[in-house]
Specification:
The protein is built from twelve helices and ten strands. It is an alpha/beta fold. It folds into two domains: about 170 residues, ATPase, nucleotide binding domain (Nucleotidyltransferase, domain 5), CATH 3.30.420.40; about 180 residues, 2-Layer Sandwich (Nucleotidyltransferase, domain 5), CATH 3.30.420. A hairpin with a 2-residue loop joins strand 7 and strand 8. It starts with a strand and ends with a helix.
């Protein structure tokens, strides 16, 4: 089976062609057009600008995906597309394109939840991965724990009550004056801090993002605010807008460690309570080297198998949408020309439930 997939939930326009055989995937192409240079001017994603950029890019990205895959359009067996959650204008561009293509080719149209797509990225490189397992999704918009009993069922057991982990990284990076997006630069600064063996190096204590002991929930809003206040206070003490390198490294390192420790604590509790033997970590923040090591160590201590996509598949991409779409198609979940885009998880869940009830 050959699937064509489109992803346009935020600020990357992506199209992919993926060959699926008995649950194993071969990525024939995975084209991504990034808008980073556009949104860097504003320090964050501007929704209206993002949707316009998708309109300009989607056709060329799709053509390049087909060309690189070396196939004819007639060989496509199904079209998968991200329909939720995300920026509504951006989603509508991808959904409209996918509906048109599926109609022209007369093939099934498969609606994919963006978050479930991130998790499905692990299937591409971990052929032995099968449900049930526990999934941790860490991205710019989500920090959530899911119980995954089968390929198309996701039961949320914990989530951030306010800001997502990735949002906190981005905003802290912006206030520190790091280039947009700040994740890679924060990762590098934190690595330099951890490598410094000076016992006198600065240490900052920030609020813990793990909420209580009775839930698997997180809260990153207070942590983000505390770090930003610390940055402002350090600047005021020195009467300058430029922090010394050792302070920048210390803030990045202590912030990163607090995030990793908080996520690891909740993850360890969730693994213990659910008895899950496998953990999948996915999403843009899964590319953070320190979080990858912290979660891998948590799994090692609990003797839990750990599956995480390679760095190119952690960010938004269409190959992961194709992988999720394959399993939805096998479960009989398809949409018609009335498919719409939804900004929230709740609306997406209701829509998929309505499709499942019609099987």
């Amino acid at each position: 089976m050959i699937l064509f997939a489109v992803e346009s939930s935020c600020d990357e326009t992506s199209a992919a062609v993926v060959k699926a055989e008995d649950g194993r995937f071969t990525v024939l192409s995975n084209i991504i057009s990034s808008q980073i240079a556009i949104h860097a001017l504003y320090g964050g994603v501007v929704p209206e600008i993002a949707s316009r950029a998708h309109c300009e890019a989607v056709t060329n990205v799709a053509r390049e995906a087909v060309r690189e895959a070396g196939i004819e359009l007639s060989e496509i067996d199904a079209v998968a597309v991200t329909f939720a959650p995300g920026l509504i204008g951006s989603l509508l561009v991808g959904v409209s394109f996918a509906k048109s293509l599926a109609a022209v080719l007369n093939v099934p149209l498969v609606p994919v939840n963006h978050i479930e797509g991130h998790v499905a990225a692990a299937y591409i490189e971990h052929e032995a991965l099968v449900p049930p397992y526990l999934a941790l999704v860490v991205s710019g918009g989500h920090t959530s724990l899911y119980r995954v009993p089968d390929y198309t069922t996701f039961e949320e057991i914990g989530a951030s009550r306010d800001d997502a982990c990735g949002e906190a990284f981005d905003k802290v990076g912006r206030v520190m004056g790091l280039p947009y997006p700040g994740g890679a630069a924060m990762d590098k600064l934190a690595a330099e801090y951890f490598a410094d063996n000076d016992p006198e190096k600065p240490v900052f204590v920030f609020p813990f993002p793990a909420v209580g002991d009775e839930t698997f929930d997180f809260s990153f809003s207070g942590l983000k605010t505390a770090v930003i206040n610390t940055i402002h206070n350090e600047k005021q003490k020195r009467k300058t807008d430029e922090l010394p390198d050792e302070i920048r490294r210390a803030i990045a390192g202590c912030f990163t460690k607090t995030v990793c420790d908080g996520i690891s604590k909740k993850l360890s509790a969730a693994l213990r309570e659910t008895g899950a033997s496998t953990l999948v970590m996915a999403g843009g923040v899964a590319a953070n080297s320190h979080l990858r090591r912290a979660v891998a160590e948590t799994c090692r201590r609990r003797k839990t198998a750990f599956c995480v996509p390679s760095l190119p598949l952690c960010g938004d991409n269409a190959a992961m949408i194709a992988a999720a779409g394959y399993h939805l198609l096998r479960a009989g979940i398809t949409a018609d020309a009335s498919l719409n885009a939804f900004a929230s998880d709740e609306a997406a869940e209701d829509y998929i439930a309505s499709l499942a009830s019609c099987r």
